[in-house]
């Protein structure tokens, strides 16, 4: 099968490419990440992805990032959400919808995302977004299984590529939100 892999970054994509190839898939990368800010960060991540793609000999398609569209479509009203909340679920959907459309445009068979390799991402929310777009053509692969995240770190270290320290959007750069106090159980 010809698979379009939404690549959030080079380090995460590295293991995912190998895992998909091990399953017999022909992989094309799609860098569609209008959420990434600032612009310099976007280009650092794209450079790292291109380095991985050159090393593993896979083609890369690059989406035209429109951060203002992303802000208005995804982040508006969710600016104060904690990382992993509703804003992230909308972002998964946004990026996967663009990936789905590119898969159709390119005449490929399936699509998936490297987002599931991260231990910081809620895999069921990612799978839900992909399956709502096309249940039969979305590959719901949890790339973090069997040490996938560790493998991606090892590959990126071996290749000497840039590894970011935040998800991508300006809202994910904030310090972790203070958890809400837990309600006191009422006496029965």
Description of the molecule:
The chain is globular, with a radius of gyration of 17 Å. The longest helix has 21 residues. It has 188 residues and is α/β, with parallel strands linked by helices. The chain is 45% helix and 10% strand. The N and C termini lie far apart (58 Å). The protein has a 4-stranded parallel β-sheet, sandwiched between helices.
Give a brief rundown of this model.
By secondary structure, this protein is an alpha/beta fold.
Strand numbers in spatial order across the main sheet: 3-2-1-4
- Which structural class do you get from the secondary structure elements? alpha/beta
Provide mean pLDDT, rounded. Answer: 90
Broad shape? globular
How far apart, in Å, are the first and last alpha carbons?
58 Å
Key structural traits:
single chain; 188 residues; alpha/beta; 4-stranded parallel beta sheet; disordered C terminus
List the helices and strands and how they pair.
Elements: E1 2-6, H1 10-22, E2 26-31, H2 39-56, E3 60-62, H3 67-75, H4 86-106, E4 110-113, H5 123-133, H6 148-159
Parallel strand pairs: 1-2, 1-4, 2-3
Helix pairs in contact: 1-2, 1-6, 3-4, 4-5
